[in-house]
Write a structure and sequence with these properties.
heterodimer, A: alpha/beta, 6-stranded mixed sheet, globular, B: 6-stranded mixed beta barrel, two-stranded antiparallel sheet, binds adenosine-5'-triphosphate
Chain lengths: 241, 404
């Protein structure tokens, strides 16, 4: 369970102060698949960065499985992200000198995963995101969509408890977007991973357990209608509209 | 281990920049190594020469070196033969050579000039390497009692007097009792010590001839040659205890020229080394700053994925250390090649300060210098990288991630 309590965040833009998030609260039960919607600039990335523990809120509390994360030191936060968090950044943020393989393996390397297990996991996830045969390529040799999939594979590879994905399908064609979404969804169901996605992409909606809107710094829950339909459809024919 | 791999990958990021830093580091190390190697070689040659000239230990009357003599050999050693026997009986002693220093006037019959002479044992000629400086004629040799004693003259002194090998000369000097005495001698050879001031005054003769001229059986000092240099200090202490009335000094106490050159080199290479090191450190600092700036987003990414700041810093330091180590390695290899090349080429060098003889340009490749230089460079490079990455590492993660 990830809980945000009364989170506020403001940015200083010159003289003016821009209140992006205002007393925002959110509860995500373990294993839920949630999306945050909203127009560009409404604060989706800001909220995700706060949940992802890479940007501290001005006020409010974050709890993970009942533990108050506000109390953790910078080092403890690093270790928390390393163990429990997978992050898909809005702009991929791949390391250019590393091959796709090395990029994807990095989170496992940080966890000192044994070599054999690491190879197995990386190969598996590369296969799942449809990058078979591309593993040796550098990010600069991959298309935008392929880079996006490397970024997604990098977040999935350690099968984390919480995945935070900022526009993960923005650069993907319909088929790949579906594959990736289904993969995230499967992980969510199979391992009880909590998935939090910021997106504009209506194709994602049907998959979500919860859909939120950010408006004036607050979070509004939208109906979760349609979710069950899409899942039924997927099980039926394997292709979503 | 993973950090080493990553650091290695990062060196390939901007090949041209990495190459430039490598070349600069390598050239600096080459310059440091070969100039230091040259100085080491020269100093070592000079040290060997000083030991040959003075012996490892010099034994004299306790006042000989620190008080003026009123008469010649006032502070000379008596019974030197007995002392020589005692010394030679010691296992660590290879050779003991007595000598007499004196001065006076030398004349060709028409013209006279001042000389500074040394009466030496014949064996000293080989040991001190006199044959190397013999320019004409031959060295002093054993002669029968009737013949006139032989002398060697400094080249410029002979030139000054207008004499040739085979000519006869007269030495005039004061005896130990203050009377004037003369000795006819035959010129058998001309030498060049390499020091012009010495060559214009130098007379070398056999010890017994010197003693005959000065009417004495004392000597000025004994030069003791040990079987190994390492025995010098212990022997000096033992003998000083054994003969407290004598002065026993090491060659270092008499090799003033050696100390001057050593001091000069030390200052010279200290400054040179400092400049070169600063150059390299500045270059690496520059490389590190640019590379860290460019990678601000990546550093943010690594941190966001749970890499500790400490680990990122370590990665950046490793990169700089790698760069320095690799550059140093190339520089060391080049220096070794240069050292070998010089060995084959035998390029003559202009004479050292105060010397008139040239010597080959050689450069010792020394392991300790190599180790010192490399370690110093690596540590300095890492320090430079630390300073260069400090600001970027302090940035909040989100700010680093959105850096353009
Ligand atoms: N570092 C910052 N300094 C100042 N203002 C910022 C900063 N980061 C974000 N903002 C502002 O906060 C608001 C929310 O930004 P955020 O990136 O969270 O939007 P978003 O919903 O993710 O937009 P998009 O859909 O375009 O990615 C924007 O108006 C933006 O201008
Ligand atoms: Mg955004």
């Amino acid at each position: 369970m990830l809980s945000l309590r009364n989170i506020s965040k403001a940015y200083q833009a010159g003289e003016q102060q821009q209140q992006v998030l205002h007393q925002l609260s959110l509860d995500l039960p373990q294993g839920s698949f949630a999306a945050i919607l909203g127009p560009s600039g409404c604060g989706k990335s800001t909220l995700l960065n706060i949940c992802g523990l890479i940007n501290p809120a001005d006020s409010g509390e974050i709890h993970w499985q009942g533990e108050n994360l506000n109390k953790l030191s910078a080092n403890q936060l690093s270790l928390f992200r390393r163990r429990y968090l997978g992050y898909v950044f809005q702009s991929y943020q791949l390391i250019p000198v590393m091959s796709a393989w090395d990029n994807i393996a990095y989170p496992l390397m940080l966890l000192n995963t044994p070599k054999a297990l690491m190879q197995e996991r990386v190969a598996q996830v590369i296969d799942q995101v449809g990058l078979t045969g591309m593993a040796h390529k550098k990010p600069s040799q991959l298309s935008g969509g392929q880079q996006q999939r490397v970024a997604i594979a990098r977040a999935l590879v350690k099968q984390p408890q919480l995945i935070i994905a900022d526009e993960p399908t923005a650069n993907l064609d319909a088929d790949t977007a579906l594959i990736v979404t289904r993969l995230l969804h499967k992980l969510c169901r199979q391992y009880g991973t909590t998935v939090l996605i910021a997106t504009h992409d209506p194709r994602l909606m049907p998959w979500c357990d919860q859909v939120f809107h950010i408006a004036q710094g607050h979070l509004e829950r939208t109906s979760k209608q349609g979710t069950d339909q899409a899942q039924a459809k997927d099980q039926g024919q394997g292709v979503a509209a | 281990m993973k950090w080493f791999y990553l650091a290695w990958l990062n060196l390939g990021r901007n090949r041209r920049r990495t190459l430039a830093s490598l070349v600069l580091t390598a050239v600096a190390v080459l310059a440091l190594m070969s100039s230091k190697g040259f100085a080491d070689y020269t100093l070592d040659a000079l040290r060997q020469a000083s030991i040959r000239e003075h012996g490892h230990l010099v034994i004299s009357h306790q006042h000989y070196f620190n008080q003026q003599e009123q008469q010649p050999l006032e502070w000379g050693l008596e019974n030197h033969q007995q002392l020589q026997q005692q010394l030679l009986a010691k296992p660590e002693v290879e050779q003991v050579l007595a000598s007499v220093r004196f001065d006076g006037l030398i004349s060709n019959g028409e013209k006279s000039t001042i000389f500074l002479a040394e009466g030496i044992e014949l064996a000293a000629q080989q040991l001190q390497g006199l044959q190397a400086s013999l320019r004409q004629g031959q060295l002093l040799s054993q002669i029968d009692a009737q013949a006139d004693p032989q002398v060697l003259l400094g080249q410029s002194l002979a030139h000054n007097l207008g004499v040739e090998v085979g000519d006869y000369l007269t030495l005039l000097s004061t005896t130990t009792s203050g009377a004037l005495n003369a000795l006819d001698v035959q010129l058998v050879g001309l030498v060049n010590t390499g020091i012009p001031d010495v060559d214009s005054r130098l007379v070398l003769t056999e010890l017994s001839a010197a003693q005959e001229l000065l009417l004495t059986d004392k000597v000025s000092k004994l030069a003791v040659y040990l079987s190994h240099e390492l025995l010098q200090q212990s022997s000096q202490q033992q003998w000083q205890a054994l003969w407290p009335e004598l002065q026993i000094g090491g060659w270092q106490d008499h090799a003033h020229y050696y100390h001057n050159v050593a001091g000069l080199y030390e200052r010279l290479f200290g400054v040179l080394g400092l400049i070169l090191m600063m150059m390299v450190v500045f270059a690496i600092f520059n490389t590190a700053s640019m590379s860290v700036m460019e990678r601000t987003r990546e550093i943010g990414t690594l941190a966001a994925m749970g890499t500790k700041k400490r680990e990122i810093l370590w990665l950046l330091l490793l990169e700089a250390g790698f760069l320095a180590a690799l550059g140093a390695l190339i520089g060391l290899a080049l220096a070794a090649m240069l050292s070998q090349g010089l060995h084959w080429a035998q390029i003559p060098m202009p004479p050292a300060p105060g010397q008139s003889e040239s010597y080959p340009l050689l450069s010792h490749w020394s392991f300790s210098t190599a180790l010192e230089t490399s370690l110093m460079l690596i540590i300095l490079a890492m320090l430079a990288a630390l300073i260069a990455s400090w600001n970027t590492l302090k940035k909040p993660i989100v700010e680093a991630l959105n850096h353009v």
